[in-house]
Amino acid sequence: MPSIRLADLAQQLDAELHGDGDTVISGIASMQSAQNGQITFLANSRYREQLVDCAASAVVLTQDDLPWCRCAALIVKDPYLTYARMAQLLDTTPQPAKDIAPSAVIDPTAQLGSDVAIGANAVIEAGVILGNNVVIGAGCFVGKNTRIGAGTRLWANVTIYHNIDIGVKCLIQSGTVIGADGFGYANDCGNWVKIPQLGAVVIGDRVEIGACTTIDRGALDNTQIGNGVIIDNQCQIAHNVVIGDNTAVAGGVIMAGSLKIGRYCMIGGASVINGHMEICDKVTVTGMGMVMRPVTEPGVYSSGIPLQPNKTWRKTAALVMNIDEMSKRLKAIERKVNNKD
């Protein structure tokens, strides 16, 4: 991990320094495990008592928590956000590839920008355009006429189909598939007739996509992922889905076709969202949400029954199964009461 003087780190993070600026920081750790030479952060004041036993050389915290700190400190308004930026500065993650591997297969018609890196056994097909500083990991496949913007990185074994457009400074993790056929079929007397998927996938700038996620190409129009969208691992995004700018999608989410999700939304893990409808801007769906109808007002939405002991759940399930009969009985009682009045 690269080393940096605490004073220099404070300057880059726009933080107020308290303590010895010549302290050398060579790593980041949690408050419980941090040792000399490492920096940590306090994002929640409820845990400020842990500062007493913290062995880190420095702590990122707010002004209110400073009196509890016994070592050097960087004072900021948002310690967690500062931690994210600090981790970027001290990141030791290697690049997915370096230079162009001899075993890479690159079509002569492909256009490569400056400082492009392509890993071993990667395949770059005809008409592909790679911007400057694009990194393609080992074993990746980039299909015909696909465009990948400057600074975008693909980790190993990513598959990008034909005619896909990916913006600048994106990050795509291993095993992801972009541009596979959407699930489109017509029924002919019990036999399924495949509908060729003629659209594409258009991904904006600064998009991050987790491992083993699939984004299907559109049937006629394009599937679209907006700028700044973050998508976790093992998500299924069906054909013609549109996701607005800066929306976050947690792991295991399933989106059906022709769904439109607005900007600045947050979709909790393992949620299932119906297709052919719209979710407006600034909607949060909590984990395991089942969204079957359009959402037209910003806010937080939830569904499902939280985990219960099995015996309690059996009683709850029995009540739910009889809810229609209970409703009928309640209405009958209401009619009797109203008739007496």
Q: How confident is the prediction overall: mean pLDDT?
A: 96
- Side by side, the strands of the main sheet go 8-11-14-17-20-25-28-31-34-37
Radius of gyration: 26 Å
Low-confidence stretches: none
Total tally of structural domains: 3
CATH architecture tag of the largest domain? 3 Solenoid
- Percent of residues in helices comes to 10-25%
List keywords for this structure.
341 residues, alpha/beta, Udp-n-acetylmuramoylalanyl-d-glutamate--2,6- Diaminopimelate Ligase, Chain: A, domain 1, UDP N-Acetylglucosamine Acyltransferase, domain 1, 3 domains, ten-stranded parallel beta sheet, 4 helices, 38 strands
A few lines on this structure:
With 341 residues, this protein is of the alpha/beta class. Helices cover 14% and strands 28% of the residues.
Question: Could you describe the 3D structure shown?
Answer:
- Strands 8-11-14-17-20-25-28-31-34-37 form a ten-stranded parallel sheet, with no helix packed on it. The protein has a ten-stranded parallel sheet with strand order 10-13-16-19-24-27-30-33-36-38, with no helix packed on it.
- With 341 residues, the chain is α/β, with parallel strands linked by helices.
- Helix content is 14%, strand content 28%.
- It contains four helices and 38 strands.
- It has three domains: 4-89, MurE/MurF, N-terminal domain (Udp-n-acetylmuramoylalanyl-d-glutamate--2,6- Diaminopimelate Ligase, Chain: A, domain 1, 3-Layer(aba) Sandwich); 105-301, UDP N-Acetylglucosamine Acyltransferase, domain 1 (3 Solenoid); 311-340.
- Strand 21 (185-188) and strand 22 (191-194) form a beta hairpin.
